[in-house]
Design brief:
single chain, mainly alpha, Amino acid/polyamine transporter I, 18 helices, 75% helix, AminoAcid_Transporter, membrane
Length: 442
């Protein structure tokens, strides 16, 4: 591709930036807003806690598997690069297309949608302000990421540190001052669990999602072969422990039936009830900052997939989408592209529904990547910067978890699944059209 620019991204991310992006990208809206839906689906507090633990174990086995693959392919693009190297250009393109057209914008829109609920409550605004607040926040964080990657990385460190304050407050207050029994409560107001344990686990996976996005920055890490596995594994493990403790803390403080009635507002109610009006406001502000950190992490990583695909000439207008600023080395056009798509999705989708479909879509390609570890083991015998422990048990659990996710969502929402699969498949004619245009120019 002679017409592609020669500017490349800057390798400046160290361990604390990487771990902050992993933890900051994962811990966002899911743990605060999914408590009600997880509890409703599970039917009891014990199964709800088990769902968060089980979702964390599935995520950790997936992270351990991807860590081995990513250490051997430490390039910008993450899952897009892995799938292409393992299965060829077409499936690689669809993995990238899925992330930049469906998954990335949808997950950003979903997190922004959840965050706007808290923001509207915080400022005493009506529901009509939710979409405008979400759009303004996404635009502001998008603009910040038009500068070099250190700006977003510093913001990730600040927000990840800041989000630990409301998390610690909820855990400590719930465990020490809660009068409920965290285990054994039943949601009596739900005659039948709305979806069962499988759908409950699926809801928790939205809360854990985002761990793989650090792989998109492989080309910007100082020592990705060592740093990428450490960031993924330590980040997911920390989040698993935090999520379990938060869930137990909330269930010790609020009865299951009340969590069911409050739904998405359960955490905001807990904050006000536990710490008073002012304390509740401060805690809500901390949670909003937490979500901003999540949005920032996603805004850093998804444009890198656009950039990586455009560098290969896989997208229409690749020359523009692959542009990076000469000084800051920031993929500005790719960032604006993701911001625009996310903004459109905010107007047409409910954030809760959107989050579940995001998880389904990305797990289609996670599964392919998980199988890829067996392919790489045959190709690169004994030549690995990182080896997945307990192989092949860990990859097998990751694969079983991925199949579980896909089957659960397929039965739960077949229409939504078909819609998102259709959007992914639309990428095929675009891929061939771009290749035909390239052939004519040569």
């Amino acid at each position: 591709m002679n017409n592609q620019p020669t500017e490349e991204l800057k390798r400046s991310l160290g361990f604390w930036s990487a771990i902050s992006i992993v933890v900051g990208t994962i811990i966002g809206s899911g743990i605060f807003f999914k408590q009600g839906s997880v509890l409703d689906s599970a039917g009891s507090s014990t199964l709800a806690i088990a769902a968060w633990v089980f979702g964390g174990i599935i995520t950790l086995t997936g992270g351990l598997t991807i860590a081995e693959i990513g250490a051997q392919m430490p390039y910008t693009g993450g899952l897009y690069v892995y799938i292409e190297n393992l299965y060829g250009r077409i499936l690689g393109f669809l993995a990238g297309w899925m992330q930049i057209i469906v998954y990335g914008p949808a997950i950003i829109a979903s997190v922004a949608g959840f965050m706007s609920i808290l923001m509207a409550n915080f400022f005493g605004l009506g529901t009509a302000w939710r979409i405008p607040l979400a759009v303004i926040t996404v635009l502001a964080i998008g603009v910040m990421n038009l500068f070099e990657n250190k700006v977003g990385a510093i913001f990730a460190i600040i927000t990840t540190t800041g989000k630990m304050i409301p998390i610690a407050a909820i855990i400590i207050f719930g465990l020490l001052f809660g009068n409920q029994h965290a285990f054994g409560q039943t949601v009596t107001e739900v005659q039948h669990a709305t979806g069962g344990f499988g759908v409950a686990v699926l809801a928790t996976l939205f809360g854990y999602d985002g761990w793989i996005l650090i792989a998109n920055l492989g080309g910007e890490m100082k020592n990705p072969q060592k740093l990428l596995p450490r960031a993924i594994i330590l980040g997911i493990t920390a989040v698993l422990i935090i999520y379990t403790l938060i869930t137990i803390g909330i269930l010790k403080f609020l009865p299951a039936n009340l969590i069911h009635r409050l739904g998405e507002n359960a955490t905001a109610y807990l904050a006000t009830k536990a710490f008073g009006a002012i304390g509740g406001k401060l805690l809500s502000a901390g949670i909003i900052i937490s979500m901003m950190g999540t949005l920032n992490g996603k805004m850093i990583t998804f444009p890198r997939i656009v950039y990586a695909m455009a560098r290969r000439g896989d997208l229409p207008f690749s020359r523009f989408l692959s542009f990076v600023t000469p000084k800051g080395k920031s993929p500005v056009i790719a960032t604006l592209f993701i911001v625009a798509l996310a903004t459109v999705m905010m107007f047409f989708f409910d954030p809760d529904h959107l989050s579940d479909l995001c998880v389904f879509t990305v797990y289609c390609f996670y599964l392919l990547a998980f199988f890829g570890i067996f392919i790489l083991r045959k190709k690169n015998k004994g030549n690995r910067p990182f080896s997945t422990p307990l192989y092949p048990l860990v990859p097998i659990i990751a694969i079983a978890g991925g199949i579980f996710v896909l089957v659960s969502e397929l039965f739960n929402d077949p229409a939504g699944v078909l819609l998102f699969i259709g959007i992914v498949i639309v990428g095929l004619p675009i891929f061939y059209a771009v290749k035909r245009m390239d052939a004519k120019r040569m």
